Amino acid sequence: MLTNHQKLANLSYFCEINIDETMTISSKQEILKDFFHAAFSVDNVVFGFDEGDLKVLLIYRGAEPFKGMWALPGDLVYLDEDLDVAAQRVLQDLTGLKNIFMEQIHSFGKVDRHPFGRVITVAYYALIKTQDYNINASSWAEEAKWFSIKELPTLPFDHLEILVYAIKSFKEKARRQPIGFELLPKNFTLTQIQHLFEAILDAKFDTRNFRKKLLSMDLLVDTKKLEKGKAHRPAALYKFDQRKFQKFQKSGFSFDL
Questions:
Q1: From residue 91, how far is each of 30, 49, 120, 176, 224 by CA, in Å?
Q2: I need a surface site. Which of 19, 63, 123, 169 has the fewest CB within 10 A?
Q3: Residue-wise pLDDT tens for the chain (257 aa)?
Q4: Is 201:179 a contact under the CB 8 Å cutoff?
């Protein structure tokens, strides 16, 4: 069992604080207490794919600071709460979304990022099919709405910086791992998967080169079916080879065009 002197010595060491060993415990505690006045928050970047467009979910803030502005769904972490638990709770409280797989991507800690005091935020991101979920704003979020990442309102705090970082991370990962593929229907056309990649990577691909690259990965299975309800010539429908898909999930791939 460590004594109070030992605990304070360890803390001063890890915090790189030069504390005079002759000081009383109460004096040392007085010096160190300021280091425990910072708060933590979580901010969630939820991407959705809809009609060939990559979108992000924002809430309309009904509370200060920045009341009346669109922002990422975020809030403070409770003192007895783990970060991952907080991210799920905040997202559900503000948007109604629950049981969404989210990945922690980065922390943001500029001293003046929050007008109420020192708040360090940890960002998470997720990717979902917009049509599969109902968005219901609650708590102090007056509204929750999807925005195209190409048509964003002015964002408060450092939320634009967080969003830009999340988009960059998402693009880099999409070139190396099969993320985003779950946004496609079970059976899909080559055009649909091309539109998905173009939306994620914000790029236009030559159709012939794209299909050649995709088919060379030997990831797709021709279902021998054609799309229905189209006035033009129906396109062939494909599905993923699940065994190879799972292999790519583990080992990754290169999709540079």
A1: 37, 18, 18, 28, 41
A2: 63
A3: 556 555 555 555 445 555 555 566 566 567 677 777 889 999 999 999 876 788 999 999 999 999 999 999 999 999 999 999 999 999 999 999 999 999 999 999 999 999 999 999 999 999 998 888 999 999 999 999 999 999 999 999 999 999 999 999 988 888 887 777 778 888 999 998 898 888 888 889 999 999 998 888 888 899 999 988 766 788 999 998 888 877 777 777 776 66
A4: no
Residues 41, 136: contact at Cβ < 8 Å?
no
DSSP 188: B
Q: How far apart are CA 118 and CA 254, in angstroms?
A: 41
Question: In degrees, to the nearest 5, what angle opens at C-alpha 44 toward C-alphas 151 and 108?
Answer: 95
Contact 141, 208 (CB under 8 A): no
CA dist 126 and 112 (Å) reads: 27
**Sequence-distant (≥ 6) Cβ neighbours of residue 26 within 8 angstroms:** none
Q: Provide the 8-state DSSP code for 63.
A: S
Model-level pTM?
Answer: 0.81
Q: Residue 169 is encoded by which pair of tokens?
A: 């991370």
- For residues 59 and 39, the answer to whether their CB atoms sit within 8 Å is no
Considering just the CA atoms, what is the radius of gyration of the chain in Å?
24
Residues 6+ apart with CB under 8 A from 60: 68, 69, 70, 137, 141, 142, 143, 144, 145
